[in-house]
Amino acid sequence: MKIVDGIYSIETFATSALVVDSHLILVDTSADSEAKEILKALKEFNYQPRDVEFIIITHTHPDHVGGLATLKEKTEATILAHEIEIPYITKEKEYPKGPLRHQAVSVDRSLKDGEIFEGLLVIHTPGHTLGSIALLTQEKSVLIAGNSLQNRDGILGPMPDTYNTDPKEHRDSIKKRAHYDLEHLLPGHGEPIIFQSSYFWNLF
Ligand SMILES: [Zn+2]
Ligand SMILES: [Zn+2]
């Protein structure tokens, strides 16, 4: 669905985002079994897989990174993730909460907190995983939240703690949102929140 001009969500079990600017950027790749849904969505938006130039992974959970092996092959995109998260995507390091179920994929470029990549501000939001990120499109005022928080039945809050590497840090990361002006939020799980005033964002 369209969030605002140039930002679209692709809904599978977890929500991926498509950012259309001077480049086509896919944020997250869903589960291995759902990579075909992403390819189908690209087609519906009238894009070929090769049109995707960059794939940014918000964090290394199977519902976000599982489709990466397939999508990297089909798109030949440059793969990016936060520098701390990369060794878990490539499986060079063992994930602190046990083995991960995805195919190891190499990452081409690392991202740092505070960096702006193609108009997306990288916000490090540790606690869900060590190198989790959210991405803020400053021009369009959309926060692509990854799993830095979820929207459960209209209530924004933390992800279930069974999935979090550090529950307290995860909650501290949620508070980082207050540092930014935003109108729209696209969470990795739950419905997007569109056109809300700063009053709303200050409530949680
Ligand atoms: Zn997750
Ligand atoms: Zn998830």
Bound molecules: zinc ion
Number of helices: 6
- Work out the strand percent: 25-35%
Distance between the termini: 25 Å
Structural class: alpha/beta
Low-confidence segments, ≥5 residues, pLDDT <50? none
Order of helices and strands: EEEEHEHHEHEEEEEEEHEH
Report strand order across the widest sheet. Answer: 1-2-3-4-5-6-7
Multimeric state of these chains?
single chain
Classified in CATH, the superfamily is Ribonuclease Z/Hydroxyacylglutathione hydrolase-like
Q: What's the helical proportion of residues?
A: 10-25%
User: How many runs of DSSP E, i.e. beta strands?
Assistant: 14
Instruction: Give the overall shape.
Output: globular
Radius of gyration: 15 Å
Q: Which secondary structure elements does this structure contain, and how are they paired or packed?
A:
Layout: E1 2-4, E2 7-11, E3 15-20, E4 24-27, H1 35-44, E5 52-56, H2 62-65, H3 68-75, E6 78-82, H4 86-89, E7 109-111, E8 116-117, E9 120-124, E10 133-137, E11 142-146, E12 150-152, E13 155-157, H5 167-175, E14 184-187, H6 198-201
This protein binds zinc ion (2 copies).
Residues 59, 61, 128, 147, 163 line the site of one zinc ion.
